[in-house]
Write the structure tokens for this entry.
Amino acid sequence: MSDDLVTIEDLHVELGGVRILKGVHASIGRGKITALIGLNGSGKTTLLRALLKEIPYTGTITFHCGHDHSQPTPHHVGYVPQKLQIDARLPLTVCDLMALTLQRRPLFLGISAKVRQTIDQLLKNVGAGALVDHPVEKLSGGELQRVLLALALHPEPELLLLDEPAAGIDFKDQEAFYQQIASLNERTGVTILLVSHELTVVTQFAHHVLCLKDGRIQCQGPPQQVLTGEVLSQIFGADTGVFAHRH
Ligand SMILES: Nc1ncnc2c1ncn2[C@@H]1O[C@H](COP(=O)(O)OP(=O)(O)OP(=O)(O)O)[C@@H](O)[C@H]1O
Ligand SMILES: [Mg+2]
């Protein structure tokens, strides 16, 4: 029985005639937090989109899901994208946006008390309870990330893909945000793949790190072992200090 939730073998992705992933071999440990790091343009978002089967690829992505690990697909994948284009003309509140995903009946019939209760709880879980009646178009980048995280957690996912989830969150709130993600992982055992440019966060919260360079995995393993000065300068070049404190 595999200890990994996902095994990726010889993954190639080409988009618009450009080779982006060039033979990725990697595994994502069941119940673990795996951090995916690499320079801008190295293919991190592309790898997540391949896992979501949003883009064509060659190679193999194998899921070992379910209680007996025999299911070929996760029952639910939660995803917080790096960027989200929301049509600002839609006069939706956070509650409306979440109800569109959570309830079967059309929004013009109103939001049921049960759905409203679920929405309140999901938002509270990510420290965003106060945003429930805010218009979506007026949310800051960080507030929107929290709302998207709340949505990604319902129904409880087997795999959670987070693409720079704290990029829009104030530096002082970032640690608390990642703490929430780490305790979610501990509490529920959800497997998390997290893209982050914050190397301090990666060393603090991730069990495993995948380093992507030019569309290939340069190295992988426990952060304390992998993220040596030598490896960091190989992946990010000499100026790793600037990179580590990008925000
Ligand atoms: N549809 C596309 N057609 C052509 N090239 C693309 C397409 N989508 C992405 N790319 C290119 O693929 C490369 C990898 O993009 P990707 O978004 O995966 O990088 P990333 O590692 O997530 O970067 P960042 O840290 O900036 O988010 C980039 O050079 C990007 O311009
Ligand atoms: Mg990206």
In short: Residues 87-154 form one domain. Residues 44-45, 82, 163 surround magnesium ion (ligand 2) (CB under 6 Å). Confidence is low (pLDDT under 50) at residues 241-247.
